Design the sequence.
């Protein structure tokens, strides 16, 4: 697992997340501060994070 820090696209607070280095994926998780849904995309190559994107989900 890898701890990664990023800014929430809604409240701009810094939050951290544990990422599974064995898989690349896209999923939705709520911000731990403001509870809004965030789309998260991770890409790992050889267990190294090569791309990390967060998007707000327009509701």
Sequence:
């Amino acid at each position: 697992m890898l701890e990664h820090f990023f800014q929430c696209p809604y409240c701009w607070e810094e939050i951290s997340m544990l990422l599974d280095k064995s898989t690349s994926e896209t999923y939705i998780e709520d911000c731990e501060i403001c509870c809004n849904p965030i789309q998260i995309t991770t890409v790992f190559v050889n267990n190294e994070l090569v791309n990390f994107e967060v998007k707000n989900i327009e509701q």
Q: What stands out?
A: Strands lie at 2-7, 14-19, 25-30, 37-45, 48-56. The mean pLDDT is 94. Residues 16 and 59 are 23 Å apart (CA to CA).
